[in-house]
Amino acid sequence: MTRNKKTVPKPWGDLHPDLLRHIYTNLYDPVDFIRFRAVCKGWHVGTPLSERPPQFPLLLEREPDPLYSPEFKLYSLPTGRTYKLQLPEVQNKMFFEQSQGHLVTFGTGDDSSPRNPTILNPFTRAELPLPFGNCNFFTPIYIGTSDPTPNTDGVVMHVHCPEKGQHLGFWSKDENDWVLRKRDLGSARVFHKGRLFICRNRRTWAIDLPTGDELLNLWLPDQIGDFYCLVEAAGVLLGIVQHNFCTDRMPLENCWFEVYRLEEEENPPHWTKLSDIGDLMIFLNSNNGFCVSANGFDGIRGNCIYFTKWNGKDDHNSRTLIGRYELGPWGRADLKLWATLGIQVGPGLCLMYNSNYQQREITTLFCISNY
């Protein structure tokens, strides 16, 4: 609109809903999407999280100096941008993996000292104390994206207390309370479609958390041992098998993976081996993983598994190996060696501790195509 050759600005909040949707469905950088929703109340309400576009994981790096620094850097892999975060809540504290984009923070000290763990949202800085102050081990369990739980800020935790043993803890914002269940867990677990799936001793269990009832109990295929981890992908459950890892950093070109899909609707339920996963990408860390579609990301290769592996050394030669394995009859692994003390991969965030690499190396590993 013009008046006397002068532009009359229109309030941002009055943008047509169709135009608003056209903009936010093309914001593939998670930081851009967050900032867009923060412009005004109208944009926040008109940009539902349920319609967020496909988003590539972020890399979160903690500044190595001083020790337990509150300063962090966020790297956007598709755009190559770097963002800085100040998290005073993590000053002089460590953080452990992450859950649904939240950091699990805890105090330093020996096993006899209270850890006082919390769950911290690094963007809003909202913090939730965990009722496991005297526990010496706690790790979040990934909640699949097909669940309604992430929309209500649900959290599923595996905790171990010296006097009480292993427990599962489930919390939802709606109830604002924890439900604890005593349970021994296997190394592969995921919360999928309202149930906790566990693989242990070549068996798969599905457990209803509120009641503790076992809803599924089946054997894994004869030709495999246990799954390395369980991953939800496009609404189905995948089991990942890893082979031929060694403690030495080379040669790892011989490592390979197998992917199985749970056919839960068939009678009887069973696992089926997959030859490929289409345009999906699976990101693996220690006993957990998540899946992202490569569709919509230019220069990103699908049908691949991205993984990390420590070289088994506890000295200044300690390294983390990062590789990409392409599924198929001629599957192969492309490897990259980074000088880092440890890498954690999580849905929406890739957590990196005291790393020493350059931004160029990050982009080369995750964003290069067709090599």
Automatic annotation (TrEMBL):
Q: Where is the KIB1-4 beta-propeller domain?
A: 74-317
Source taxon at top rank:
Eukaryota
Which Pfam families does the record cross-reference, listed alphabetically?
Beta-prop_KIB1-4
Q: Which InterPro entries match?
A: F-box-like_dom_sf, F-box_BR-signaling, KIB1-4_b-propeller
For this protein, the parts annotated as crossing the membrane are none
Report the protein name in the record.
F-box domain-containing protein
Q: Which organism is it from?
A: Rhynchospora pubera
